[in-house]
Amino acid sequence: MERIAVLIPCYNEEQTIAKVVDDVKAALPEAVVYVYDNNSTDRTVELARDHGAVVRRERKQGKGNVIRRMFREIDALCYLMIDGDDTYPLDCAREMADRVLERGADMVVGDRLSSTYFTENKRPFHNFGNSLMRTGINGLFHTDIKDIMTGYRAFSYEFVKTFPVFSKGFEIETEMTIHAVNYNMQVENVVVEYRDRPEGSQSKLNTYSDGLRVIRKMLQLYRNYRPARFFGAVCLFLVAAALLFMLPIFREYLATGLVPRFPTLIVCGFVVLAGIQSFFAGMILEVLAAKDRRDFEYRLTRVCAEKRGAMDGDGR
To answer: N or C: which end of the chain has fewer CB within 10 A?
Structure first.
């Protein structure tokens, strides 16, 4: 088991990958640098290998698929993940690794939004999307993560080996964040500088389609991890809508003793029943979610035992 593994997912980053690998080696000379190529058509692989990185490949396109492969294949006490586009200086790499190795953090978030992101980033919709996701997830999950979408993070062995990767693309960062929050893992924020991509380097993130996927993933995970609140909100909406349409009918009935709009009344009755069904569905799923959290603690205990066994085998 390695002490620090630096993970760099890459797709067509020949302009910057050599500098990123060199910067990592300067900041963390004891680390093993892994570049995972995701079907690049330029010289990314050649340059990464020439500068001393261990190069591996993931044939299935998408950042989530690359991270799934990384987490499955590599064993380390600390994982530092960074993008290959040279947007993150490495001056905070040591601090982020130490938060995992010395303080027992499970995930350390490289917080761009508290430093230079909004001035450096030239894509206004990206700025808006990052702020929206931070507000949405912190509000829904009652947490205080400073940067939801950052690609600069450090992880513990326990986080990596208990994190089930379902996302295929850029929504993976949202999934990581919510996983850590849901299972009460230790999350810390480190403010990092951000610089925009150098001229000629193109972002692989599509503002609109990937943004919609991220929002959908956030709502999906909220439904899965907080079912009582999610379906309770659906119940409240349905019952409120039914009552809104029933009130005029009820007032007319009190005034005249007649119910002239039976179809509306019947539909409202069915909507109320749907709301009640939603409420009980949320209660049942909440019990299952609680069981999943208990099962996760058992899995976490097994992973910790595996880690101790590996460290003893290495003589650490």
So the answer is: C
Encode 137-167: b = buried (16+ Cβ within 10 Å), e = exposed: bbebbeeebbbbbbbbbbbbbbbbbbbebeb
Cβ pair 154, 108 in contact under 8 A: yes
What pLDDT is attached to residue 201?
65
pLDDT tier for residue 11 given thresholds of 50, 70 and 90: very high
Ranges of H-type helices in 102-196:
117-120, 124-141, 157-162, 172-182
Q: Which of 113, 133, 109 has its CA nearest to residue 185?
A: 109
pLDDT tens per residue across span 222-236: 999 999 999 999 999
Q: Residue 107, SS3?
A: strand
Q: How confident is the model at residue 167 (pLDDT cuts 50, 70, 90)?
A: confident
H helix runs in the chain, sequence order: 17-27, 44-50, 63-73, 93-101, 117-120, 124-141, 157-162, 172-182, 207-225, 227-256, 262-313
What is d(CA 98, CA 92) in angstroms, rounded to the nearest whole number?
Answer: 10
The predicted model scores a pTM of: 0.86
pLDDT averaged over every residue in the chain: 90
- What are 205's two structure tokens? 């993130």
pLDDT of residue 16: 93
Do residues 299 and 265 touch, judged by C-beta distance below 8 A? no
Query: Which of these, 81, 51, 50, 78, lies nearest to 64 by C-alpha position?
Result: 81
Give residue 14's pLDDT: 92
Q: Show Cβ contacts of residue 99 under 8 Å, excluding neighbours closer than 6 positions.
A: 105, 108, 154, 188, 190
Are 274 and 238 spatial neighbours (Cβ–Cβ below 8 Å)? yes
